[in-house]
């Protein structure tokens, strides 16, 4: 559904990333993990087509639902208007959204359980609520692929739980193919079918999430040891970093 | 939700509007050559060019037909003798220009409220200045020149225009005759002395804060040349800002300071580090230009005074016009007013020029 | 927020504009009794009047075109301000702040310098406004699109174009082209006429209509480049079209009335405060408010003193406190100033 083949991007004489390849089947969820500056966001931008690849090939549908880390602007818009903007690609340059588009936007809000936000001002929502509205906007494009750039990066735990819960329902419905970047290995273990770990610009591990996100690999990725606990039947393991362990 | 406008209807109406019908028309051409038609000699006149107010009063011999004038005219009016000669004119409306009272953009409604028979405006400075009046259906006659640009011919055309408006062509002819006599007299004297050295003359349109010299396209160039002088500013066009170094390089023999800046006296030259060393300053030949009914260094109906005054100062050995007598008789002819000795002193700026070389000739005898 | 019904909202705004226009038609230095104003307007509106008396001419040929032009320019500047604030995702920009107005003024000054006609004047104001906009957009694209860089880029471009205007005035002939340039730059509605309405009105109104029609696309662009592209929108084409239309409007407005500040900055904020930013009401509200605002301000300008007050003074005196108020209350209304 969405794939990169031996993809590489060079700026000047420095490779941001190289030899990246994956092929995500329809309906599955991919988590991209890596330290700051490893090129996660840049990789997303090549997926979206905003940046051209230096080498390799990408296979991405023409319309992709995109959820930014946070939305700058739009505070004085109603949430329904924000979501309706996802319909812009279908409306033409001079087009204005009609009843059908608003219905689609309301349906998208319903999908993420946020119909009650429709008439509220975007600027009045909490960070997690905003991300959910932006997710609804991505759904309103009717794209089959969603790309999320660190959707929970700036959220407190309650808002993380809110957003991850909504994403989990989408995953359970298997209605969308989803790619997201994250700083929290736990988000990957909770949501992702597959994981892409960006160790270095030319070393990338890709595979089933449970298989590649081992304690050893995570420790190597972040330079921090991890502890693992079981969370109960039917739930993924819980990993947590052991801070200070690397300090002598 | 764009509002609907009635543009097409309005334009159609405008196109269909017939010109107003007038009886007993008085027709003449203004200085731009445009035909002006009035029901009769104008009884209520508004002037936007600054010198025009004084010209109307001079040609008319009274201020009663002037109902509005430029704020700049009022300033000149109050700094000169006109205020004394025509005290009634103090009540003439001057709030008739748009944009904070500068320039000549007419405030149409304020002008219309004066119910003028005619408005005199500058021509050749863009239709923006004229169109609002025309659209209001107010007759307009245009003068040309002004500022410091212009020629003696244009100066006369502007006077002729005012005479036509007032129906006083005989007064204009008398003014032209006077001008011709003074010009012919000066030319004859100079022709009789072909060896006379031409003094280098600088006219400063501004000497306060900055120096603005008038060039070969200015009216001042006309009278500097007329009195047998050489305009050092030739080459500057109408006028241009120059610095002290440039003036020092010209080293003029005589400097004439504008009457427009009432508060900038001879000290602007004599106390300047550089300019105090010019030939003119050293010889005391720095003069503040007089101001009669109108400033003497701009083209007006009083220009012959300027020529005689400057001729006496430029060639003290050749010219001996009796300016005090000329002003007295001239003001009687122009304004039906006999100036007192003190008033003549004020016109000639005896106080400001007291220490200037050769100015004793203008003092009371 | 409980929105008022759409019909009520639009009728109120239209009533405000009509009231401002009518009030403007009834006052002036030249006194026309109210009954006569009614009577003359009535006859004019029904087409049964060709202005002959001074009252009729003042009202129909002086005040009405002036009101109409003030309304068009006010609507145009406010709508452009709303669009620019969205496009630059920055609440501090306006045609004036971004240097578009100076750009248009330079084009006009150059045209007058070489003695060009009305068509060239319009083409030049449009082209140089667009040039200023492209320069600001390019600088802020390279330097990073933060509030600071955009506003600084605008200041720099505004200063550059202003300096070039001064240069134009410096080399102009003081007897002919200089006075024409000075009057044109000073900008006011005091030289309004039906001829001017006919010359500039249709194209500016058309551009206003086009920009109004683009309002949803403009709202989408305000979400950010990446986001808009992900919706399937061609960001480059959209942005250039909007830039071009804005340049037509600003060029036309500057050609009509010179550089007028504050309208494009303050009116969109006021509209935002009233109705939020939704494409249904925001842009139309800004345009109608802008029209009513400038008609009212111009009326003040020509009636307060006998010598008309420069419009820029009044828009600043009214605009600055309003803007400060809006800035200070913005946080409490929910939207942080970024």
UniProtKB/TrEMBL annotation, chain A:
<dbReference type="InterPro" id="IPR027417">
    <property type="entry name" value="P-loop_NTPase"/>
</dbReference>
<keyword id="KW-0067">ATP-binding</keyword>
<protein>
    <submittedName>
        <fullName>ABC transporter ATP-binding protein</fullName>
    </submittedName>
</protein>
<keyword id="KW-0864">Zinc transport</keyword>
<dbReference type="InterPro" id="IPR003439">
    <property type="entry name" value="ABC_transporter-like_ATP-bd"/>
</dbReference>
<dbReference type="Pfam" id="PF00005">
    <property type="entry name" value="ABC_tran"/>
</dbReference>
<keyword id="KW-0813">Transport</keyword>
<dbReference type="GO" id="GO:0016887">
    <property type="term" value="F:ATP hydrolysis activity"/>
</dbReference>
<keyword id="KW-0406">Ion transport</keyword>
<feature type="domain" description="ABC transporter">
    <location>
        <begin position="2"/>
        <end position="225"/>
    </location>
</feature>
<comment type="similarity">
    <text>Belongs to the ABC transporter superfamily.</text>
</comment>
<keyword id="KW-0862">Zinc</keyword>
<dbReference type="GO" id="GO:0005524">
    <property type="term" value="F:ATP binding"/>
</dbReference>
<dbReference type="InterPro" id="IPR050153">
    <property type="entry name" value="Metal_Ion_Import_ABC"/>
</dbReference>
<keyword id="KW-0547">Nucleotide-binding</keyword>
Automatic annotation (TrEMBL), chain B:
<feature type="signal peptide">
    <location>
        <begin position="1"/>
        <end position="23"/>
    </location>
</feature>
<keyword id="KW-0732">Signal</keyword>
<dbReference type="InterPro" id="IPR002491">
    <property type="entry name" value="ABC_transptr_periplasmic_BD"/>
</dbReference>
<dbReference type="GO" id="GO:0071281">
    <property type="term" value="P:cellular response to iron ion"/>
</dbReference>
<protein>
    <recommendedName>
        <fullName>Fe/B12 periplasmic-binding domain-containing protein</fullName>
    </recommendedName>
</protein>
<dbReference type="InterPro" id="IPR050902">
    <property type="entry name" value="ABC_Transporter_SBP"/>
</dbReference>
<feature type="domain" description="Fe/B12 periplasmic-binding">
    <location>
        <begin position="44"/>
        <end position="318"/>
    </location>
</feature>
<dbReference type="Pfam" id="PF01497">
    <property type="entry name" value="Peripla_BP_2"/>
</dbReference>
From TrEMBL, chain C:
<keyword id="KW-1133">Transmembrane helix</keyword>
<dbReference type="GO" id="GO:0005886">
    <property type="term" value="C:plasma membrane"/>
</dbReference>
<keyword id="KW-1003">Cell membrane</keyword>
<feature type="transmembrane region" description="Helical">
    <location>
        <begin position="147"/>
        <end position="171"/>
    </location>
</feature>
<feature type="transmembrane region" description="Helical">
    <location>
        <begin position="311"/>
        <end position="328"/>
    </location>
</feature>
<feature type="transmembrane region" description="Helical">
    <location>
        <begin position="120"/>
        <end position="140"/>
    </location>
</feature>
<feature type="transmembrane region" description="Helical">
    <location>
        <begin position="286"/>
        <end position="305"/>
    </location>
</feature>
<feature type="transmembrane region" description="Helical">
    <location>
        <begin position="240"/>
        <end position="265"/>
    </location>
</feature>
<protein>
    <submittedName>
        <fullName>ABC transporter permease</fullName>
    </submittedName>
</protein>
<dbReference type="Pfam" id="PF01032">
    <property type="entry name" value="FecCD"/>
</dbReference>
<feature type="transmembrane region" description="Helical">
    <location>
        <begin position="67"/>
        <end position="88"/>
    </location>
</feature>
<dbReference type="InterPro" id="IPR000522">
    <property type="entry name" value="ABC_transptr_permease_BtuC"/>
</dbReference>
<dbReference type="GO" id="GO:0033214">
    <property type="term" value="P:siderophore-iron import into cell"/>
</dbReference>
<keyword id="KW-0472">Membrane</keyword>
<comment type="similarity">
    <text>Belongs to the binding-protein-dependent transport system permease family. FecCD subfamily.</text>
</comment>
